[in-house]
């Protein structure tokens, strides 16, 4: 007999909820301790409450705040899907950052080229360009792994450096606005995503939701998705069952790169509309955090991305109200991951009902499959 | 045929010519920049040694970047805090070493060892994925140093 719905839901969310609660407690402790470091200000026990109040208000307090949260969430959904999809096939795509940058680069090149074209053509073409560029950046490590056995972690990190260098070279050289004092490209013009919600809620929000559902369908309702999950669970068994793990590896890395490229495209066409030399610094690493917290499931990825996107959106108000640096969000993210990884201890304490409720990392794909 | 003739002949080869030009450029600048080159190479060599140690013990260390960042930050903080206590001393007789320098060096190495201990605890005792543990260290070091830097 299956246990009741409440028990089943709790068995899935117990660890993540506990982890997030503990992380925010530790964040409050960090805020209190850091008060001691700044001389000349009276010690205030209520500062964590002020800070978290401002964080929540900045993320959810008004219509604009909610739209800002959604805008911050969008690239994290795409990035989280990209990293999570890799996890499903047992691949650690740490190169989401590089694929993100190259995707944005592809989108800006085509977007600037087509900035006078009809919006439908311009948007479609530049989005496709971003996705293809990201996919290409993911294909290379996948191909190297399948043919030469190069570890995807090392090759994707190297591809990150190439992407950063490529971006710097192109933005300071061929793509730069001539005679402009700052390193910035032309505006993408008609290729910019139209606004659908509020003052700046762009089309990418809708695309992110659709993509998450599509990836879920792909993973759980198609043969290819089954092959991906099988290869992630046990490549040898998958080969014995007639699948081709090498082909799946290449295809998965390409698809993962395309998703990360879509993240870059959504930021570029939706938010910045032009490329600067300091474009999108932390989305790649945040995506890894999102995928780990979401346990690589496409639908929970949206929830995890919403949490991190909300934290990013509210951080500005927190800095203004409580004079706490926005970097606290990075610290909180790291602490959440730390507690997630240390969750075997938590699980022992909690005596969670289901075995292996939270498992992180590609190596535990089997345990994850058994629960979801 | 003199040396310049050979050189110009080599430079004439279509693609390899670029390589030879780059090599010639490097050879030309090395004598004047030896100190600079050593400065650039030192952190690379030390970090690579770190990687070698970890790989030999069977732990993949992705977190070297974060460890270096945190240690550099610790060195700066400790140096700023300790230097006035010794009245901004003159450079010492051996390599210009001063007591505050030694203290901040030891502090930075201690911080890095603490972080590596965390990595080891996560990946060996808890059997977490080593790459994830390293990624956490990178994110944490980036966040904590940025946070403290803004605060101080």
Q: Give unreliable regions of chain B as ranges.
A: none
Largest sheet of chain B: none
How much of the sequence lies in strands of chain B comes to under 5%
Number of strands of chain A: 2
Largest sheet of chain A, described in full?
A: 2 strands, antiparallel
Rg measurement of chain B, Å: 22 Å
- Structural classification of chain B: mainly alpha
Counting DSSP H or I runs of 4 or more residues, the number of helices of chain B is: 6
Q: Going across the biggest sheet of chain A, name each strand in turn.
A: 1-2
Q: What is the CA-CA span between the terminal residues of chain A? A: 17 Å
Q: What's the gyration radius of chain A in Å?
A: 21 Å
> Which overall shape of chain B is indicated by the principal axes computed on the Cα atoms?
flat
Largest interface comes to:
A-B, 34 and 25 residues
H/E element order of chain A? HHHHHHEEHHHHHHHHH
Fraction in helix of chain B:
over 70%
Name the poorly predicted regions of chain A.
Answer: 352-372
Please describe the topology of this protein.
The complex is a heterodimer of chains A (372) and B (152).
Chain A: H1 5-37, H2 47-60, H3 63-88, H4 96-113, H5 119-148, H6 152-172, E1 195-197, E2 201-202, H7 204-221, H8 223-233, H9 235-240, H10 245-272, H11 283-293, H12 298-322, H13 328-341, H14 343-350, H15 365-371
Antiparallel strand pairs in A: 1-2
Chain B: H1 3-11, H2 16-29, H3 34-56, H4 64-82, H5 99-125, H6 130-151
